[in-house]
Amino acid sequence: MALQQLADLLLLLGAELGDRLGRAQQQPGGAGQGEQAEGGEIGTSSDIFSLGAVVAFAATGEGPFGGGSVASLLYRVVHSPASIDGVPDQIRPLVARCLDKDPGQRPTAGEILAELGLSDAEIERLADEGLF
User: Fold this and answer.
1) pLDDT per residue over 58-100, tens digit each?
2) What Å distances lie between residue 49 and 16, 101, 122, CA to CA?
3) Number of H helices and number of E strands within the chain?
């Protein structure tokens, strides 16, 4: 998949699934970020984690932390590295950063878009439209 096509896909995911991902984050076993599983605060970095999980699933057909019970899934989210070997090489480093255990190490939405090749003007326009 070309980077521009992936950028377009990510924009669609953000526009179409943002509310659904937000709701899923509030449910055990939904998006399942480590900070949520440990009772910490969730925020925009949690959304980036969810995006990484969605992209990994879209690329491989499997969740980056496997399946099973909610308890075992949340344990792996907190304690195990994401399994993203099947993610295409050109986006694997970006997906890995999105799934970083440390929320402060995850990229921002703007950094993701810039890495995918969107210009500063395009990113600013999307921000002005409230897409992130």
Assistant:
1) 898 888 988 888 788 888 888 999 999 999 999 999 999 999 9
2) 17, 9, 23
3) 7, 0
CATH of the domain at 8: 1.10.510.10
Q: Is 36 strand, coil or helix? A: helix
Contact of 10 with 55, CB cutoff 8 Å: yes
Number of domains in the chain: 1
CA angle 105, 86, 112 (to 5 degrees): 35
Give the angle 20-77-49 at the CA atoms, nearest 5°: 45
Q: Report the C-alpha gap between 84 and 3 in whole angstroms.
A: 18
CB distance 112 to 106 below 8 Å = no
The 10s digit of each residue's pLDDT in 5-57 is: 666 666 555 544 444 444 444 443 344 577 777 878 888 888 899 899 989 98
Identify which of 87, 91, 82 has the alpha carbon closest to the alpha carbon of residue 115: 91
Tokens of 54: 């969605």
Question: What size, in residues, is the chain?
Answer: 132
Residue 103 φ then ψ, to 5°: -55, -30
